[in-house]
Amino acid sequence: MRFRSLLSAAIVWVTGAGQAYAADADVEFWYGHSGAAGAAIQDICERFNSTHPQSLPMRCIAQGSYEQNLQKTVAAYRSGKAPALVEIYDVATPEMLDSGAVLGLDGFLQSQHKVSDDPLLPAVAAYYSNADGNVWAQPFATSTAVLYSHADQLAAAGITQAPETWEAFGTALVALKAHGSKCPAVTDLGPWVWLEQSSAVMGAPLLSKDATHWAFDQGLHLRLMEEVEQWMAEGLLIDQAATRSGGQELAFTAGDCALLLGSTGASKLIYSVNPSDVKANLLPVFAGQQRAASLPGGAALWVLRGQSDAQYQTVAEFLMFLRDVSIQTLFSDATGYLPVTQGAATAYLAQLPADSATVVGLNAMTQGDRTTAFEVRPGFITLLRLAWQQAVWSALAGQKPMADALHQAARKGDSLLRVFENTYGPRETDKGVNP
């Protein structure tokens, strides 16, 4: 049922009516955050309004989760009541590009005579660019995946450094358990880390060369997931549901578990208890494999059609305001998200330890070959993630071999690629995707 509802929400753009011009009283920005991130966004909006009295007021409105924000935005656009600016999570990028509802960022800023002297990080901008290299959305709330470790627990088990390979990761798990750890590593087995990020850093294509079918049911990803199956069976890699807290970040932060593959966006929580003991490292790869770049995750800001000239002027001012190094620093410090421009990234690299999540995350996105990390963004990837999760857990429950489970998930993903093509038409092969 959830699978069908997500599919319906994803394709509804193309049947939508044109957007009518909105009133000029203010400018709405819809976002998908709560907690510290939501508070930081509200703070930024208040700062903008107080320092830009000549612009229309920005009304920054929380709309629930990323998924809820996307669904509400689609519904609002169809009814002619969409916001001017909306935060959409990374995996909906193909739908946004093909929706016909958005204005490309580069062209929009040029039309508003806005030029930034602090360019976006190439590794991040590329994800939101089309095949011609034009950026269509401004990165925001950006994150990537890293390996977190408790240095004291590793040292107590005789492990002198965090594992850089999957072989060393497995060895570390055994040593930690032998030393008495009940949770050598914790996981939620989320596909963003275990399918997309792990494949990217190993340079393992998720898609065929012509982007017509999924290829994660073979090669390095299959090898990794068979290792995961063994680690979980031996009590070396623990499902988050089996921990005291029931959540992987909480279990790691509390010191109940020694290792965690997680998001840099969770670093604010992860460093909140014992920051000097927590170290961040690049995700492991198999021995002998050339390391490649990790993926930029999180969200981006999209400019929607149907607004007035005065509203677009304010949107352009706001986007430039968000690029200011001081504003990026404020947001990153409050949330753990990564800076998105070269100037802000340089400032962070100079002031933070080399093993901090921010520094490791920024470096992770520029490692070696970036072809598999540039734009792993086929249509309906949210539904592919769901199919992958269902398949992996069925294998872990002993219902079928991991190879068969991944094969079935990949073929379901192939059918989603066909649905996307039939809905939006053939997609150009994006530059840098598994050439």
UniProtKB/TrEMBL annotation:
Secretion signal span: 1-22
Location(s) in or outside the cell: Periplasm
Any Gene Ontology CC annotation: periplasmic space
InterPro entries the UniProt entry points to: Bact_solute-bd_prot1 (IPR050490), SBP (IPR006059)
Keywords (A to Z) from UniProt: Signal, Transport
Subunit structure: The complex is composed of two ATP-binding proteins (UgpC), two transmembrane proteins (UgpA and UgpE) and a solute-binding protein (UgpB).
Similarity comment: family membership: Belongs to the bacterial solute-binding protein 1 family.
Protein name, as recorded: sn-glycerol-3-phosphate-binding periplasmic protein UgpB
Organism, as annotated: Pseudomonas trivialis
Organism classification: Bacteria, Pseudomonadati, Pseudomonadota, Gammaproteobacteria, Pseudomonadales
